[in-house]
Amino acid sequence: MTMSPSVPDPDRPPPALLALDRWTWREIAHLLVNLPMAIAGFVYAILVIAVGVGLSVTVIGLPVLVAGLRGARVLGRVERGRARSLLGVRIEEPSPLPSGRQEGGFFPWLWSGLKDPVGWRSLLYAFVRLPWGVLTSAVTLVSLIVLWPVLPFIVRGLTAADRAMVRGLLPPSDELERRIAELESDRGVVVDTAAADLRRIERDLHDGAQARLVALAMGLGLAKEKLTDDPEAAARMVDEAHGEIKVALQELRDLARGIHPAVLTDRGLDAALSAIASRCTVPVNVSVDLPGRPAEAIEGIAYFTVSELLQNVSKHSGARSASVEVWRASDRLLIKVTDDGSGGARMGGGSGMAGLAERLGAVDGLFVLDSPVGGPTAVTAELPWRDRAPAGSRAS
């Protein structure tokens, strides 16, 4: 994939040219703005440090320092935006600090603000930028007048240092911040999935078993009215109602299996996956090698993952055979489902693969699809292994 010279690559900007292209002018604008931004940031940093540290012996000193650090976060956000728009440096925004109410009171809020690494690094960035802002603005202005033939190369060298400063001092708090962002995203996936499952259960109850039971009640009411006048017709209606009851019970069993099958609760993954395999339209070989039973939530996700994959095998693969393997490796539960079908499965296309990947990702799992056109298809899923809680602790 090639990139237009006017569209910067965040990690590797286009090579400097003798001509002053749009990319170079954006870098020049960034360097010229360095001086006023550096002056404002330096003055702010000095005020925060002087006032906060100077008043730290009083009651209001530390809250003033925390407020200054939160303000430094705002300066950092402005600088990240400037670097993003003019230098093409794209850095994720750090997670916002919780408010005092979220923290549980004044002192937890004060402590979280004092140990905020993003605020301190933003303050350090504002403090050290003054000499660099003076230098870059002066060099850029002089180069515009007397060194314009080599101006793009000078500008590129200066902005390379700017990029390094932004990446070094203004990113989120490394792995912790990235992890928080991932957990927030995963929480949204879990909430959306749970809401969709509840809507599905409600729809199935309303359109299936509930409607059938309503019709059954009406039929039994009519049979009761005909019981004395036309016993034979009443007997036929009761017989029909008996058939309806069997169908309604089967629908309720299927619905309960879709929520959490009894065989999974009573006998574990081996028996539950064998039951799924028996309903598949192609022969499925099931192999489960586990030292024990994982936590109920992990066991349920593994069950529904295999169930969804075998449904795809039945509907879309055209396979003659399939296999399911489940085993434990260290602290991971691994699942591999393969089939000898036509392949060509993708994460999109309504196959449900993307939804499975999101569900697994929400619990720190992995989902890998290998399905070349012509087959075979192999899906590998990983889940974190958590031991099942003892029955007594669950009951309590």
Describe the overall structure.
- With 396 residues, the chain is of the alpha+beta class.
- The protein has 13 helices and 5 strands.
- The protein has helices at residues 22-54, 61-86, 100-103, 106-114, 117-146, 151-169, 174-226, 231-259, 262-267, 269-279, 296-317, 353-361, 391-395, and strands spanning 284-289, 322-329, 332-339, 366-370, 377-384.
- Strands 1-2-3-5-4 form a 5-stranded mixed β-sheet, covered by helices on one side.
- A hairpin with a 6-residue loop joins strand 4 (366-370) and strand 5.
- The longest helix has 53 residues, at 174-226.
Short summary:
The protein is an alpha+beta fold. The chain is built from 13 helices and five strands.
Features:
396 residues; alpha+beta; five-stranded mixed sheet; 5 strands; 65% helix; disordered N terminus
> Which strand order do you get reading across the main beta sheet?
1-2-3-5-4
Distance between the termini: 58 Å
Strand proportion: 5-15%
Shape verdict: elongated
**Count of runs of 4 or more consecutive helical residues:** 13
Provide the succession of SSEs: HHHHHHHHHHEHEEHEEH
- What does the average pLDDT come to? 77
Low-confidence stretches: 1-11
Biggest sheet descriptor: 5 strands, mixed
Residues in helices, as a percent range: 55-70%
Judged by helices, strands and strand pairing, the structural class is alpha+beta
- For the secondary structure, the number of strands is 5
